[in-house]
Amino acid sequence: MALPKQVKIVEVGPRDGLQNELAVPVEAKIALVNALGHAGLTYIETGAFVSPKWVPQMADSSDVFAGIERLAGRTYAALTPNLKGFEAAVAAGADEVAIFGAASEAFSQKNINCSIAESLERFAPVIAAAQARNMRVRGYVSCVLGCPYQGEVALDDVAWVAEKLWQMGCYEVSLGDTIGVGTPLHAQRMLSAVAAKVPMEHLALHFHNTYGQALANIASCLPMGVATIDSAVAGLGGCPYAKGASGNVATEDVVFMLHGMGIDTGINLNQLVQAGADVCQHLNHGPRSNVAIAELAKQDRTP
């Protein structure tokens, strides 16, 4: 199959990235979201309405939503695992919400203390409430290429959960390699199995770079027709299951690769690099993006 002419980047840095980093000031989060919007990102996961006891880094999400500059043609989304979170997201002015499940029974039990089936039951009222407000719901599936607790995850299990989210009303299902252990052929087989149940145009890839495989995995799947990629500016978000490892694939690296393949993203790479460098000033590390490190070095700047 031919490569897509255009790819949508779902920027998850302000949420999935920063929730696994040191807490940063709310002003820095607002500045990051604004900079991402001006750089051309059209979908920005801006915050999460979850228990501050479990995810304290997201406790100020309402303040972030209140402070951002809302550019035309941009979607500012929030993660909402339950009805309480959904109602808080609506009150904050989120454009769209997301729910998250897992393809691994062991991960579901460890992460949210319930079975996969029970987690899906919990999502039903969130989806119903969103549909009543004509809000779109995005679904995440964790551990599609491996689980930190059970190891290998059956492709049939991945496809089953993705199909359930699709049938329940998620307009898009994001397939997450939570621990970054996938390799290209495995990624292709997984995507093929899911695409047999959910139309390819409603699927997204959310690959982590723990073992340095994320770009290769994305590149291997693009000819199959997938055209939505999740990523985090500066590679924000470590992997909690592999100490010291990187987490989300860096948006700068994905954009550089896509542009090199002749695929349009609508993103200004220079502005993107700057946005990542700025937020990293509040962290104990520089950008984890190879592209950002190279570009900043050309400017004689140490990231």
From TrEMBL:
Its EC number is 4.1.3.4. The keyword Phosphoprotein does not apply. Coiled coil: none annotated. Pfam families: HMGL-like. Residues 7-273 form the Pyruvate carboxyltransferase domain. Pathway: Metabolic intermediate metabolism; (S)-3-hydroxy-3-methylglutaryl-CoA degradation; acetoacetate from (S)-3-hydroxy-3-methylglutaryl-CoA: step 1/1. InterPro entries: Aldolase_TIM, HMGL, PYR_CT. It is an enzyme of class 4 (lyase). It comes from the Bacteria. GO terms for biological process: ketone body biosynthetic process; L-leucine catabolic process. GO terms for molecular function: hydroxymethylglutaryl-CoA lyase activity; metal ion binding. Keywords: Lyase, Metal-binding. The keyword Lyase applies. Belongs to the HMG-CoA lyase family. NCBIfam families: PRK05692.1 (NF004283). This is hydroxymethylglutaryl-CoA lyase. It comes from Pseudidiomarina gelatinasegens.
